[in-house]
Design goal:
Length: 126
């Protein structure tokens, strides 16, 4: 499969993961995100969604690795940092969580609803 073909297939698996998660089929979603990452290891949103799925399943230790990698690859996306913050908070590390929320806040431009949401999290856990 060509490089472009692998990336297109990775997108299909990502979309499948989103669909499974939406339907409450978390384990199938995790499989689909993993397959997406097998095809394109640098697919930031697959890393984020896989990390978020593990957070929702209470597996924050597994989630942190995926979310940290997502920050390395997609560090300008506030959603990546917000997800990492949620993971840290859920794992009991409020201090790191608030730091990640602050980075997310720093990267948001013009979206007042998102800014307000992050500020609420900082106020709640800071």
């Amino acid at each position: 499969t060509s490089h472009g073909g692998r990336h297109a297939l990775a997108t299909i698996y990502f979309d499948l993961g989103v669909a499974f998660k939406t339907e409450g089929e978390m384990s199938y979603g995790v499989e689909a995100y993993n397959e997406s990452l097998n095809l394109n290891p640098d697919y930031v949103m697959s890393l984020v969604n896989l990390g978020n799925a593990f957070v929702e399943m209470g597996k924050t230790d597994e989630a942190i690795g995926y979310l940290r990698r997502a920050t390395e690859l997609g560090g300008n996306d506030p959603q990546v940092w917000y997800s990492l913050g949620n993971c840290f908070v859920r794992s009991g590390d409020r201090e790191r969580g608030v730091k990640a929320y602050e980075v997310a806040l720093d990267k948001i431009e013009g979206d007042e609803r998102a800014r307000a949401m992050i500020l609420r999290q900082i106020a709640k856990f800071g």
